[in-house]
Amino acid sequence: MKPPSLIFEEFLSPLKCRDDNVLKIVEHRFTDYTTIIEQYYNVKVKEISSPILSNDCNITCDNSIYKRNWIRKNDYDFTGYIALSNYSKDVPFDEDYDVYGGELIFKNYGIKISPTMGDLIIFPSCANFLHYHNKPLVGKFNYIKLFITCENPYIFNFKEFSHNPFSHII
Length: 170
Hints:
The chain has helices spanning about 15, 20-30, 35-40; strands at about 5-10, 45-50, 50-55, 65, 70, 80-85, 85-90, 100, 105, 110-115, 120-125, 130-135, 145-150.
């Protein structure tokens, strides 16, 4: 069985991660991955949002809010996440490229991902994938998010996927 996430290593090079036009670069490059996403999840992509630069560490669900039940608040079906710094827990580290701390945590799975600069992670935007960052102890951790909307709302079904949601690297 396949995991419910896709990881594309080196989606952006470290040089591109530092480019002043990184959001435009991501927007242009991401369209090349639409077919892979459609085939993997058996969906038809309707729209891809403009990329957003962030350093927010708060826990989030990208398409729903909780009010006694999870209520869908927008049309996002999948989230694209790109780290613009490397996670590091060892010293010394390169302050231009690394942060000390800043793991990406998926609360419902107890999984911590040590982000690698330029990798793209795609995962369903639903409440099953609540996520946040540990606040970096040293350095500023920036990342890019973008959102994918499908022609028909994507309904995440555990039975279609393996128990390890982040084991599939392309």
